[in-house]
Design goal:
By secondary structure, the chain is mostly helical. Helix 1 crosses helix 2, helix 2 crosses helix 3 and helix 3 packs antiparallel against helix 4. The longest helix is centred in the first third of the chain and has 30 residues. The two termini are 20 Å apart.
């Protein structure tokens, strides 16, 4: 049973980590955050929010997804990574809701349904991680 719990936590952590990491990787390295800002953020939110806030949000969410996702994948500072990624989910939900009514929240809910259990499950169950190795 202990192995099953550890594998379950590992699976959740890796799935969520790779989802965020690949999203952040695409924004930072494939498209470039400045292009993401110009083509997605500014286009949608320029009339709704001050430009400096929209630009800061583009950079914040992109880098938190990349770094937080990587930290989850390796299992280092898991809780801090989850806190930062939870803030991204709140920002994204607010942003999408500000732009238009949110009828399809699947892009946020899938991640939230993996993130919240990771926050609630005991850290001791997360044995296959850098944090787990450091606890020993």
């Amino acid at each position: 049973m202990k192995l099953n719990r550890s594998i379950a936590v590992l699976t959740l952590r890796l799935l969520l980590g790779f989802i965020f990491f690949m999203q952040g990787f695409g924004k930072v390295f494939t498209f470039g955050v400045s292009n993401v800002y110009k083509n997605f953020f500014a286009e949608t939110y320029s009339e709704l929010l001050p430009d400096f806030l929209v630009q800061a949000t583009a950079y914040y969410t992109s880098y938190v997804e990349l770094i937080g996702g990587f930290l989850l994948i390796i299992g280092l500072k898991r809780d801090w990574a989850l806190y930062a990624l939870a803030s991204v989910l709140v920002i994204v939900t607010f942003g999408h809701g500000l732009a238009e009514p949110i009828w399809d929240a699947s892009h946020v809910m899938t991640r939230a349904l993996m993130l919240v259990p990771l926050l609630l499950l005991p850290k001791e169950w997360d044995r296959f991680s850098v944090d787990g190795l450091m606890r020993k």
